[in-house]
Amino acid sequence: MKKKEISRPKDRKLLIQLFAATFYLSAFTFGGGYVIITLMQKKFVDEYHWIDEEEMFDLTAIAQSAPGPIAVNGAIVAGYKLAGIPGVLVSVTGAVLPPFFIIALVSVFYQAFRQNKIIALMLEGMQAGVGAVIAAVVIEMIQNLFHSHCQVDLAVIMAGAFLANVFFGINAVYIFLFCIVYGIGKALWEKGRGQI
Description:
The chain is mainly alpha-helical and 196 residues long. It contains eight helices and no strands.
């Protein structure tokens, strides 16, 4: 598959575009970090061509693995990749401002929102839509994973992690730790064989 040409201008225009993109995504994304990650991919990979698909997949893995909100982690890693520390500051500011303003506004009118039946029904409807969007994100990430890597061990680990958590009740922390150890071991093994 031919890679798209990646353009990464390190200037003021990039920082303005980065702020506008993260602000827009954060302001109009409902459903949390998993939704914003896929929208970042559409914006940064498909529209601006700042990052290629493989890099975005790696950045998504870092954002999901690090502690903290996925949307902020995604903004941090994407901003750093594109423009270093200034990119981090700009993208995090863009990602944090919309929820800050919205939560501040909601807190002022909390009692009115809580007792309003129309708003309660609207939020219930949004929950159904968010569930569908998160399911679509998961399916797209699985497709990207196997399209880019096509490795049987990844499929086995993914299925095993699902079964371990859902059916055997194993804490997700232990699953993450196992995956980290496996990934480090695999990387060292491939490095020893000269594949990295």
